[in-house]
Design brief:
heterodimer, A: 378 residues, alpha+beta, Protein Transport Mog1p, Chain A, 2 domains, seven-stranded antiparallel β-sheet, B: 389 residues, 4 domains, six-stranded antiparallel β-sheet, four-stranded antiparallel β-sheet, 5 helices
Amino acid sequence: MLRWTIPLLTVFALAPLGCQREEVQVYQAPKDSPTPVAPSPHAGGGGAVPTSPATPPWAVPAGWAEKPNSGGMRIASYGVSAADGRSVDISVVPLGGQSGGELENLNRWRGQIGLAPITEAELPAQTQPVTIGTLTGKLFEMVGDKLTLDGKYKARTLAAVLSLSGTTVFFKMTGEDALVTENKTKFIEWLKSVQTGAPGAMEPTAASTLPPTATPAPVTSIPPMVSSSTAGVPPPPATGVPAWAPPAHWKAGGQRPMRLATFEVPGGNDQVADLSISALGGTAGGVLANLNRWRTQQLGLTAATEADLPKLTSQVPVTGGVATLVDFAGEGELKGTRMLAAIVNRPDRTWFFKLTGPDAVLGAERENFVKFLQSVKF
Amino acid sequence: MKRLFKFFSSLKLTVWLLALGILVVFFGTLAQTEDGLYVAQQKYFRSLYAVWSPHDPALKWIKVLLPGGYLLGTMLLINLLAAHFTRFQWTWKKSGIFLTHIGIILLLVGQLATDMFARESRMSFAEGQWRNFTEDFQATELAIMSDAGQSDMDQVVTIPTTQLAPGREVRHEKLPFTLRVTQWSENADVRRRGPMVDKDRPAAATQGAGASLILEPTAATRAMDRRNTPAVVVEVLDPAGQALGTWLFALVLNEQEFEVGGRTYRAVLRSTRYYQQFSMKLLKTTHQVYRGTEIPRNFQSRVLLENPKTGEKREVDIYMNNPLRYAGLTFFQHQMGRDEIDANRGTSVLQVVKNPSWLTPYAGTLVVGLGLVVQFMIHLVGFVRKRGA
């Protein structure tokens, strides 16, 4: 009898190990909150739903005139002007990642209307909660103490910041003190009307995707509507390198990570500059963020502010648009290094052409670079 | 029959099986460079057979047929049982061997149980957030939610994405519609459709968010620290078989609504969720590194554990080498970070392991050890007695 013991015991032990198959399950679960829902094409009898990018995912208050998109970091601009020349500017800017931190942003806005910066300790006193769509954002209000507008008026800024996972959206109204105050109720109502779940409403920038080792975004916060599965990787080459005409002496380089194409640009004394061409989805963090990344990390320069942009950039016409051109010379240890870069915003992605190398080479190649840029058929 | 029995109970078979086991471990380890851990595990160890080929494309014609882990394990078990059955005679003298064999069987069966029942998932939250579910890191599901009658509850039907092969139709008694899968990608990028660049490419779907998006399938990743972002396009057919349009669901997209028969459904493709009977709230994260380095010294999550069933409500600290064991689950501190937006808010990821048979390897090893000691002592005592006599 005992010789049966072990085999029998084994069979009993194995019995529960039936084949487990993944199957459809039904259960009740608490609703996720707050999870905004993409609008239903059938809701309300199936009709006008703001799925088209042309319709903004919010209700534009009466009296606000839509301004043409300047092509910068803004996804929408509105304006209010009074008969006597006073005006108010309203903008929506989504940015990827941390976007410079709350205090930095607040102090930048304060600087724009002539106020002194505040410290971290003073921040809470300046912050109020505000409803943005189904979520809660932070509202900052500040008024200038000098007559900065045309020497006649004080400026006031209202800024609402909505933190989504991976993206921060800035809603900002700035302009003449009294006119901004007049429009404050509209601004607050407008924020409430934002459909935080509308497709592509707050399209994140490429910089917003996480590196693979980072903590996954908390689940109840809204994931970005559209993002790339791998951090910062350009769209697959299948979507195309455009046709272009490089100068004969430029040598095509091999495949490099993150780049769509590379050229080696030779100069005198065996010096070589490197031209990298890449494209990122969306606005790729905006011009300023990219410029500052290059300035601080690659050229030993200090970060620039939005106010410096007009001085630092120039515009060059290219096929189907305008390229924003910068020309930076390195400092400190990087003296002698120069960077000539162009950023071209296309509807689907942002192109970067970056020529880096010895000052002498770049000086000689500047004209070729611009010509090449203008040869690109996007 | 006798010959078959003899074959299965032979010691030669044991030696062959163990040798093949070494080979499978060897090739299965090599395959991880190409397949990654999870796929290699499935291919070589959770299978009946496997075929190994070198990584080099020029040598791809080389194929090595190997028995899989399941086949080897089953054969070893049969071998052990058959040997036991044919040769075993109960005597005190052999009680040590008896115990050792029980221990080995325990190890084999326990490993199989671990393999089938163990489940790894994660719980990720930011300070102040509650969680009552964990999420699978690999598996994804299409969840279809509708109001359950109570205001704060949903009826959820989840369809594992393994069932979403193109052309398949999914029906369920709780759903008054049929889902017909028109496209499935294990890994895909989803991007906005550019009116100019994509003028010759149709949008991914006709309804919902997909109507303004383009789906770009990409190669599936096998790396352990990456995950695939699957996407599926389904056509919804109402009870009459009338097509209501196609919808795109992807891991990177939010919930989308659609209406069938006057009832609103919400659907989302998400990491497979395992709901629990209790909730946890992340209270505080502590992230310390050794001074002047990035080497972690202490990652600690303080969580509030609440179980309405048992009335439990207590605070627990989870940190390195101090996991929380609760309700058959083990919570390990896994990752820690700052909230992307609000840098003052800590986030934490706990690795959650469910392994009902986690004790069997310990028990098995103990029994084997005991058996060996007993057997040795029996011999020793016999020897000493003989010598004394």
